[in-house]
């Protein structure tokens, strides 16, 4: 999901349902304008933030209305930088197809890389391929394998959709955005905000260091319990990954 420093401005920018191109591309994002503190210390936000509530509400309504009739689904996360044709990409394709074969719809962030791979697998399996995009200062757009796409302005609205309309997560190797989604899901399960929500990390070599750190540092220092390490599974096997989410969701 990262953007190299100094990258040129995008030719196309999606601001929720609005598309801007060429000279009409605006700097920054809606999230940024919501969260940044004005440099001059002005209190103009008092007059503008209440109206943002309406926009946030509209995003929830749009997402709920679009996704409410989805069948059981699994959200698949992974790096936007995963190269097409790489082993990780091909694993994503196989996972997307296997999830469809098991009766799930597939939800991703709608971008390139691992997300595109899972959407491609779902589409090739004649399943439902969903992409939940996000407004970013560098435009990626929805990949061509998405059948149902929703673009969001706010990360927290998008995150709600990932969890609300999925019965579990499969997490491919990824960067900060992937880790963000992973740890949010782990926190929701740990605090019992969601139940029967399997989380599968795909790629033992990639995730091994993180698991070792959780066990050897976080748990060892009493910041988490041994039980918390049972909140997720790690595997290199596509069939096992799908079997784990199927078993826990009862599909």
Describe this entry's structure for a reader:
This protein has 251 residues and is α/β, with parallel strands linked by helices. Helix content is 43%, strand content 15%. The chain contains 8 helices and 9 strands. A 7-stranded parallel beta sheet has the order 6-5-4-3-7-8-9, sandwiched between helices. Strands 1-2 form a two-stranded antiparallel ribbon. Strand 8, helix 7 and strand 9 (233-235) form a beta-alpha-beta unit. Helix 3 runs parallel beside helix 4 (114-124) and helix 3 (87-101) runs parallel beside helix 8 (238-249). The longest helix is centred in the N-terminal third of the chain and has 23 residues, at 45-67.
Task: Describe this protein with a few key phrases.
251 residues; alpha/beta; 7-stranded parallel sheet; two-stranded antiparallel sheet; 8 helices; 9 strands; disordered N terminus
């Amino acid at each position: 999901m990262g953007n190299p420093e100094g990258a040129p401005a995008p030719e196309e920018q999606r601001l929720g349902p609005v598309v801007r191109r060429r000279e009409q591309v605006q700097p920054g994002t809606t999230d940024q304008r919501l969260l940044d503190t004005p440099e001059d210390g002005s209190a103009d936000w008092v007059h503008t933030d209440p109206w943002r509530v309406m926009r946030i509400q509209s995003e929830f309504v749009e997402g709920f209305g679009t996704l409410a009739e989805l069948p059981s689904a699994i959200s698949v996360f992974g790096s936007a930088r995963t190269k097409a044709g790489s082993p990780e990409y091909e694993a994503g394709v196989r996972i997307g197809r296997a999830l469809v074969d098991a009766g799930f719809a597939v939800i991703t962030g709608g971008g390139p890389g691992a997300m595109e791979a899972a959407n491609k697998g779902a589409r090739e399996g004649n399943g439902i391929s969903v992409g939940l995009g996000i407004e970013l200062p560098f435009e990626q757009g929805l990949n061509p394998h998405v059948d149902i796409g929703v673009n969001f302005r706010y990360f927290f609205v998008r995150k709600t959709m990932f969890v609300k309309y999925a019965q579990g997560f499969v997490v491919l190797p990824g960067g900060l955005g992937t880790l963000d989604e992973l740890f949010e899901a782990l926190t929701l399960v740990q605090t019992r905000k969601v139940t029967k929500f399997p989380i599968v990390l795909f790629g033992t070599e990639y995730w091994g260091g993180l698991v070792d750190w959780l066990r050897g540092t976080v748990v060892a220092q009493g910041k988490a319990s041994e039980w918390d390490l049972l909140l997720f599974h790690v595997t290199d096997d596509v069939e096992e990954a799908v079997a784990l989410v199927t078993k826990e969701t009862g599909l």
